[in-house]
């Protein structure tokens, strides 16, 4: 258990890297208070036009269709051992599934899991379905279900958790999320073990947010996390892994690409945010979750071509939805 928790997390100390960055004048633009006057036109358009946000990721996935661009994330089964030890039928909602690099190892680990995978990009969903369905995963088509959704702007479809079931799943009402969705997602048969087959699947046992939330504009994060809370069963877990403060990727951004505190936009319109631990705790606990695990994963990666050592910083988090209190 302990070995799994420490997997890929302690190659160096975060505090040591923090001191190095803060002393290096080359990285000064990452540390000074953000001045919104310097926000560029690209970031303004990307944030104000809802279609631009999804379209940017559609273009990204269309550009990087090669399977070599995404590696199967087998390490997640050691970081989140719960995913590989599901003895009973289990529903997992993977938010921001991309091309299936997270879903594939989960589906391979146990036959008791069904993954409901969503993304704001049709290109990503089509690629994910192709990868999963041509794999050697048992009953891949029946156990991997995709639907188009932007959880930053609208609710998840009612077949995942209907209004009545949402009320029953709630421990408390954290943040209102407007029901502005015009897309309910791809229709498909409900699983045989659905809690209420005539209504919905009755919520999910796990929600995974793996390198997804960092691509969301900061001001949309609270409502997006609240929506994950709404469809998770009481006692269920949200598993989080994403970019951490001072990660190598953050340090590559130029001053003109900065659009907020620790928030950047690329030339293709896609965004990237870099989390600190307090930031993550406030976001998830503010939505009603209880923190179980939260730490920096500090990993040294070596470029095989030039031998350069790269320091990666990710945030690992595990959050539980409180069990509902008995009400009679």
What is the succession of H and E elements? Answer: HHHHHHEHEHHEHEHEHEEEHEE
Number of distinct beta strands: 10
Q: According to CATH, what is the class?
A: Alpha Beta
CATH superfamily: Vaccinia Virus protein VP39
Number of alpha- plus pi-helical segments: 13
Question: What share of residues is helical?
Answer: 25-40%
Main beta sheet strand tally, sense and closure: 7 strands, mixed
> How many structurally independent domains?
1
What percentage of the residues does DSSP assign to strands (E)? 15-25%
Please report the distance between the alpha carbons of the first and last residues: 38 Å
Please tag this protein with its features.
328 residues; alpha/beta; Rossmann fold; seven-stranded mixed sheet; three-stranded antiparallel sheet; 13 helices; disordered N terminus
């Amino acid at each position: 258990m302990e070995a799994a928790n420490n997997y890929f997390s302690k190659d160096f100390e975060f505090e040591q890297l923090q001191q190095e960055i803060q002393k290096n004048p080359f990285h000064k633009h990452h540390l000074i208070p953000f001045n919104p006057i310097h926000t560029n036109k690209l970031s303004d358009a990307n944030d104000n036009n809802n279609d631009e946000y999804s379209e940017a990721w559609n273009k990204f996935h269309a550009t990087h269709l090669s399977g070599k661009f995404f590696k199967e994330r087998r390490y997640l089964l050691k970081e989140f051992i719960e995913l590989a030890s599901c003895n009973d039928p289990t529903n997992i909602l993977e938010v921001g599934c991309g091309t299936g690099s997270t879903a594939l190892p989960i589906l391979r680990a146990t036959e008791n899991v069904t993954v409901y995978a969503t993304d704001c990009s049709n290109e990503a969903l089509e690629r994910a379905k192709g990868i999963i369905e041509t794999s050697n995963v048992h009953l891949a088509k029946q156990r991997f279900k995709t639907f188009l959704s932007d959880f930053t702007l609208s609710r998840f479809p009612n077949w995942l958790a209907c209004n009545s079931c949402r009320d029953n799943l709630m421990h408390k009402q954290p943040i209102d999320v407007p029901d502005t969705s015009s897309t309910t997602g791809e229709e498909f048969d409900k699983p045989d073990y659905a809690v209420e087959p005539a209504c919905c699947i009755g919520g999910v046992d796990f929600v995974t947010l793996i390198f997804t939330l960092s691509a969301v504009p900061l001001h949309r994060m609270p409502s997006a996390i609240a929506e994950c809370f709404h469809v998770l069963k009481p006692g269920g877990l949200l598993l989080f892994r994403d970019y951490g403060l001072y990660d190598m990727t953050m340090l590559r951004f130029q001053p003109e690409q900065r659009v907020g505190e620790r928030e950047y936009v690329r030339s293709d319109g896609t965004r990237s945010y870099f989390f600190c631990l307090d930031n993550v705790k406030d976001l998830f606990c503010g939505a009603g979750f209880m923190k179980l695990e939260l730490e920096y994963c500090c990993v040294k990666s070596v470029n095989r071509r030039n031998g350069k050592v790269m320091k990666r910083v990710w945030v690992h988090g595990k959050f539980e939805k409180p069990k509902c209190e008995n009400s009679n």
